[in-house]
Write a structure and sequence with these properties.
By secondary structure, the chain is an alpha/beta fold. It has 14 helices and 18 strands. The chain is globular, with a radius of gyration of 21 Å.
Amino acid sequence: MAVTVIKNVRIMQTMEPVEVLENMDVVITDGTISAVAPGIGSDVTADVVIDGSGKTLIPGNVCAHHHYYSGLSRGMLISAGPQTDFIQVLKEWWWRLDRGLDEEACYYSSLICSLDAIASGTTCAIDHHASPSYIRGSLSTIARGMEEVGIRGATCYEVTDRNRGMSEVEEGVEENIRFAKECDGKKKNGPLLVQAMIGGHAPFTLPDEALSLMKGACEETGRGIHLHAAEDKYDVVHSHHIYNKDIVARLEEHGLLVEKSLMVHCLHLSESEIDAINRAGAFLAHNPRSNMNNHVGYLKNIAKVDNLVLGTDGCGGNMFEEIKIGFFKHKDEGGPFWPADFLKALSRGNRLVERIFSDGRRWGRIEAGYTADLVLLDYKNPTPLVNANGATHFVWGMSSNAVHTVLVDGKVILENREFRNIDADRIYRQAASVAQRVWKAVDKIRS
């Protein structure tokens, strides 16, 4: 039995109701919070004792949509053609990058994305993967990087026909099924750190035959889909042109819109399509930084989404940055949300995690019975931090610069801003070497 005690810490519950509790002890037993109360840790024999004096403990942040395959793209030096619309951006940049990835590149992408996420206070990343030149086994490679760092996660393969038609679709579906079954096998050894979903790129690269295969994969594995939709107007126009249907209607006809579904972007869906997502109980991941970078528009119906969560779409794993920029962009658009609304969306990522793992564990609160995915912040609040303004402090004041210690499943991954049992410097050096090799390969790939 492994016991960790965090003593004399200020707790801030980020999930509604936001609550600030001073001078608390937290006892963690075998990865689960077993007790929370003032002074309760004094009589506990612990393997690890953390002094929380002057610090703030929050539940770990969840990135509800990430692209680990983008990990080696930062500052990528390649020759590229015009990128004046979204399709050109995909063809000239991202679809060339993912074709240049091999096993080693995927592994180091996973390692550095996991390290970056943990260092910024993100304890769980929901990944959406693509590497058309290395499909079979790729999800196991992504999972291996997550597990070695110690971050919680989920991953899936982005089914698409964009390079090789239906043969590529079939390989992607097979990889999703293979990895899901691998996860099922690991369950016998205890709770999983990394789980599976069924991935799809976007409806405009998924013919009806592909959607049918994805539905079959969902039924065979019991998983839900993780799918981009209406990120750009092109996706909507394509659906109307080729199928004479709305995107959501296509998904409903194939039985893919259910409560286990994770829809991403959805900027250009109609109100009735948002209503359909709500009726299904599905989640919708909003990715403000990516939307701004790709100039694809804004989620005008954001206030109508029931299960809104926040992701980055591959723009790193820093959810403190994402929530800030998301809030400011929303206000710039004249939207009705306030910091509490965005903190609610970020915290709702824990409900998504519970649905993905489906094993009875709970996340998102610092209470007995909840999984100990926690972040200790060295946040010096210059004004009172209380229940009524906790969300405002989170959006306006707190940042990844304050991340001091991170625990996942009760295990200390980052302590005093240093990784435990991980040679992060070596990983970053090797990743830079791998990135140079990948960039040379990508530069030879034509769109």
